C-alpha cells in the first residue's frame, strides 16, 4: 500500500513539474548563444574588447554586426547571411566576428550615426576601416539582403588591405 502511494505521489510530482516548463511551439528549446542566430556553428567574440584582442593576436580583421532582435531589417539581413554558405565560410575562416545588440563606447564605430543593421570592419591594428562601407551615402555601413555581393567584395577588401598593410 505504501509503495503504491509513493508511486502515485512520484507520478503526480513528475506530471506537475512538466506543466511548469515552457515548451516552444516547435517542441524544441533552442539555447541562446553568442551568435544570436547569425551562425551557431561559428565562434563569436563575446565583447568588443575580446574581439579586438582576438583580431590582434590571430592577425585577422574583426567584423562587427550591429543589429536589434525586433528590427525587421536586421532579421532580413540575418536570414540571407545565415543561408549563404560562402559568407558563413568566410566569416569562419578569415575573420573574427562579433554581433552587438547595443552600442559600444568607441565612437569610431558610429561615425555616421547609430542605426541598424550595420556592418563594420576593424583591422588587427585596431583601426576602424571607415573606407569599407555599403552603398548608401546617408548610412555608410548599412547593408540590405540585396547587398550580399557588395558585402563579399568588402570582405575581400578587408582581407587584401590587411595583408598589404601589415
Q: Give me the strand/helix succession.
A: HHEHHEEH
Distance between the termini: 80 Å
Question: What overall form do the CA principal axes indicate?
Answer: elongated
Tally of helical runs: 5
Structural class: mainly alpha
Rg estimate, integer Å:
22 Å
Keywords: Endoplasmic reticulum, Secreted, Signal
Subcellular location: Endoplasmic reticulum; Secreted
Family: Belongs to the AGR family.
Protein name: Anterior gradient protein 2 homolog
Describe what you observe in this structure.
The chain is mainly α and 166 residues long. Helices cover 42% and strands 9% of the residues. The protein contains five helices and three strands, in the order H-H-E-H-H-E-E-H. Strands 2-1-3 form a three-stranded mixed β-sheet. The longest helix is centred in the N-terminal third of the chain and has 18 residues, at 2-19. The chain is elongated, with a radius of gyration of 22 Å. Residues 15-26 have low confidence and may be disordered.
